[in-house]
Amino acid sequence: MSIKLEHDKNKQAMTSFCMSRAILEDYAKTIARIEGRNEEEVVQRVRVRTRELMKELSDSAKIDETVVTASEGIKQDSKIINAQGNNKISQSKSMALENDRHHSSIVKNSSLKQPDLFASQPLASKKGKNLDMTDGDVIVFPDFFSKNQSDLYFKNLLNDIKWRQDKIKFYGKEMPLPRLTAWYGETDKPYSYSGIPMNPDPWTPDLLAIKSELEKIANVSFSSVLLNLYRDGKDSVSWHSDDEKELGENATIASVSFGDTRTFQFKHKYLKELPKVDVPLSHGSVVIMQGTTQHYWQHQIPKTSRDLKERINLTFRVIK
Ligand SMILES: O=C(O)CCC(=O)C(=O)O
Ligand SMILES: [Fe+2]
């Protein structure tokens, strides 16, 4: 199959190329050999990235459609369930749980329901729960910001942030990303995300206040933040790891959510037998991803046919 990929961003050796998958993998192996890196791992990363780009393309194509009917939405959801092997806890069930309990549950997509880890915690508690993931270190704070603080931040960010509609290029065609984004932080730290160069706007008072709260639990000093605005259930981010070289080895990322609850999903890159992990991210919640998480796990916010309102997500990062 012939594929076109835009660039090798790490080496900036090519801006775009079109070749068969076999040749591409061969090329990746050669680069790995020259750089003394593990060939299998590099090839695996190329495969993952190829799949991500193809997924982004098809997601964008779907978003481009002006009418998505309810029945189409339902079909999409059932495909996801089948792809996950007819798990007894289906995606729609876990979504319903998420809705009902609002702040409280973590559901792993295995045939067994996990205990409700947050049920006994008081609201606004700042105590996190480690998700205990193989090769990963992810801590969730379901009610990090109070309802009042969260309402205020949500309103301010929606109005004040310079939201933009980015595009991705694939097969030479430009497609809109299925969400709006913005990039703020130290203005001398350039960064590219999914191949898109980002020029940060300077910190705002709200962003600085949020950052300072997060630094107390993450024990790092964040230099920038990527913001995502999911306008409704059709907006999404597809499977990826935040492993750009600017973030360095074992990046610490703090992710804050305001607005409607969405399901954050994790899957292990190599151990396919491990169940996916679903985490409902509600208004005012925080997730810290650290250690080897980005090496071994991918995450996504899947589309849903449920009628959802806006959600804002901020991922604070350290650019080296
Ligand atoms: O919206 C989210 O919770 C995740 C966003 C994300 O993964 C990213 O921006 O890298
Ligand atoms: Fe991410």
Automatic annotation (TrEMBL):
One of its GO terms (biological process) is DNA alkylation repair. The keyword Glycoprotein does not apply. Pfam families: 2OG-FeII_Oxy_2 (PF13532). It comes from Hymenobacter psychrophilus. GO terms for molecular function: catalytic activity, acting on DNA; demethylase activity; dioxygenase activity; hydrolase activity; metal ion binding; oxidoreductase activity, acting on paired donors, with incorporation or reduction of molecular oxygen. Its cofactor is Fe(2+). The lineage of its organism: Bacteria, Pseudomonadati, Bacteroidota, Cytophagia, Cytophagales. The keyword Cytoplasm does not apply. Residues 221-320 form the Fe2OG dioxygenase domain. Keywords: Dioxygenase, DNA damage, DNA repair, Iron, Magnesium, Metal-binding, Oxidoreductase. This is Alkylated DNA repair dioxygenase AlkB.
